[in-house]
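Field reference: sequence -> structure
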Amino acid sequence: MRETDPLSRYLSQALSSLSGPLASLAFLSSMRDHYNGRYIHEGWANFGSPEQVHDMLQKTHVAVFESVMGLSVVDLARALRSHIAALGENEARAVALWQELEPYYEMIPEGCTVPARRLFISQMQLALEVLALAPEWTHLQPPGAWPPPPPGPLHLHPAPN
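Structure field:
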């Protein structure tokens, strides 16, 4: 679809309003009917056929999933933190819930290879573990906060004679 198509414009606007790649992945996976795998958006039905909406959302879901797969575990943990914060949730509670319920399984697009599926799941589990066990880890600070401030002045004690 061309960028000037109403469907493309609406999808672009929707994704740009989200807090990051994980929010985009959650949004796209929420558009998929879990019984038949079809992507549906009732509000966009006036701007394209159900098949056009499905095709566009499916292709975008795969592309966003692949971009999330390219994140390092630290960047994924940052994305998780950003997504949880954007939802207004308590981070520790949300992380514990995600570890228990594993909602990220629903974020995997249909047709994903077994190795890619396993890699995504293990990366999500590890990123959640990082947030659960080391929420204050300096590497989780936004890139603008890097490098960490230098240590204070050194206090050298004279060597005993």
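Note: The two ends are 80 Å apart (CA to CA).
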